[in-house]
Amino acid sequence: MRADRLLSLLLLLQNRGRMTAAELAEELECSERTVYRDAEALSAAGVPIYAERGTGGGYRLMEGYRTRLTGLTEGEAHSLAFTGMPGPAGDLGLGSDLALAQLKLHAAMPDALRERAERVSSRFHLDTTAWWRRPAATPFLAPLAEAVWESRTVRVSYRRFDDTRVERSLDPLGLVLKGDTWYFVARPTPEPGGAEKPPRTYRVERIGALEDTGRPFTRPEGFDLPAAWSSWAEEFESSRYTLRTRVLLTDQGAELVPVLCSPRTAAQAEYGPVRADGRREALLTTESVPVAVHEFSRFGPDIEVLGPPELRRAMARHMEGAAALYRGDPGDRPAPGP
């Protein structure tokens, strides 16, 4: 909206001092021609804004002028929880609200505090995306967030972990950003006269379609989103790490456990005494035989699997297959048959 852009332009000049039309256009995500028109509109409205020509020129406000239009709208107040996280705020449709809210807060600060806040923001940055990954597409995140804000029931088409599709009527209770992955906690909508079911956790990226029904629901009394998430996350991790393995590790292998295994496997590792051959027995808990083969094969000769038997056999097949690839000259092995 033009009114928001005009206010943003005014607050940018108030907070930063002189800025060129190009700098303002980049901040406001508009053209320089639009900046010229907006500056003229502010001047016509009585705002003491001046254009300085030549090198080092730009727009500035009259010395000592400060606007008091710093009240936050409802959307801007919602966005403050994402201060320092413009990416997630943008995912939720709050990017422009957050930018304007931050400008208003800076404008309302005394000079000393404003300078300190600007110094902190220029020295610390939060990037929630892991290396070599792009965040999953979440086209339904913003409408889902709106349903969370307003406590409205939604109908979703959801892809389960086995790729089957299900239709669900849900009362969304909250959103959680774990690393760079969005989840939402929702209660299955109770049937008329039916018993209320406990909340469950879903991945936002698996939503294939979403319909906001417009029907309001009453949140469960005393529902605590952080506590619900912590409980579910602990249960989820525990349910995946169920394979207990016995291994022998060299000194080098023991040092590699925190590097080559998952953090949970490394944290739960139990080590026994050193044997006569210099190796140490250890108990390592991991997710499954395929995951253990993938992790343990990277240790090379610094690990030997003692059990369970199915894992030892799988490791033997994997290592024998890898060794066969390196016998003889590269490319000499015949292609596998049909």
TrEMBL record:
SUPFAM superfamilies the UniProt entry points to = Winged helix' DNA-binding domain
Query: Locate the HTH deoR-type domain: which residues?
Result: 2-60
Q: Which InterPro entries match?
A: CBASS_pafABC_assoc_protein (IPR051534), DeoR_HTH (IPR001034), HTH_11 (IPR013196), PafC-like (IPR028349), WCX_dom (IPR057727), WH-like_DNA-bd_sf (IPR036388), WH_DNA-bd_sf (IPR036390), WYL_dom (IPR026881)
Which keywords does this chain's UniProt record carry? Answer: Transcription, Transcription regulation
Q: What is this protein called?
A: YafY family protein
